[in-house]
Amino acid sequence: MRKMRGRTLGIDQGEFQLFSDFQHGGDMWVGSGPRERRQYINFSGSFLNKPVVQVSLSLWDVSNASNIRADIAAEKVTEDGFDLVFRTWQDSQVARVRLSWIAFGE
Q1: What is the DSSP letter of 38?
Q2: Do residues 83 and 39 touch, judged by C-beta distance below 8 A?
Q3: How far apart are CA 42 and CA 17, in angstroms?
Q4: Which of 8, 32, 50, 102 has its CA 20 to 30 A from that of 62?
Q5: Please, which residues have CB within 8 angstroms of residue 1's CB and are 6 or more apart in sequence?
C-alpha cells in the first residue's frame, strides 16, 4: 500500500489512440508474431514522487478471425510521464486501440 503524506495528492488522467492500422494495412492488422506499440505520455504537471499509473482499454477494434491477445501496461514511470504500451502476438489482428490512463501520486 502506498500512503500519501498530508493533503498533497495529484491526479492526472487522459487517453490516447495508440494506432489505427486497418486503414493502411499496418503490422498490428496484417502482421503476425510479437508486436508492440509504445507512446510516451507527459503528465500535465510533475508529481513529487513516481506516481501509480493505471491503464485500461477504452477502444479495442479486433478481428474475430483469430484469437484476441493483448497486454497493456504503463512502463518507465517517472514524476514527469510514462510509456503507454500495447502488445499482441501470434496471429491476433488488431485494427485500432485507444488506451485510457489515470495517475495518482504526491
Answers
A1: E
A2: yes
A3: 15
A4: 102
A5: none
Q: Are the C-beta atoms of residues 4 and 83 closer than 8 Å to each other?
A: no
Dihedral, 57, 72, 29, 43 alpha carbons, nearest 10:
70
Q: Give 10-35 pLDDT, tens digit per residue.
A: 999 999 999 999 888 999 999 999 99
Cα–Cα distance for residue pair 2/68, rounded to 1 Å: 34
Whole-model pTM? Answer: 0.89
pLDDT in tens, 47-78: 999 999 999 999 999 999 999 999 999 999 99
Instruction: Supply the DSSP symbol for 51.
Output: P
Can you tell me the distance from the alpha carbon of 84 to that of 74, in angstroms, rounded to the nearest whole number?
5
C-alpha to C-alpha distance for 49 and 80, rounded to whole angstroms: 9
The letter for the amino acid at 91 is D
* Predicted confidence (pLDDT) at residue 94 exceeds the cutoff of 90: yes
For residue 90, give the amino acid letter. Answer: Q
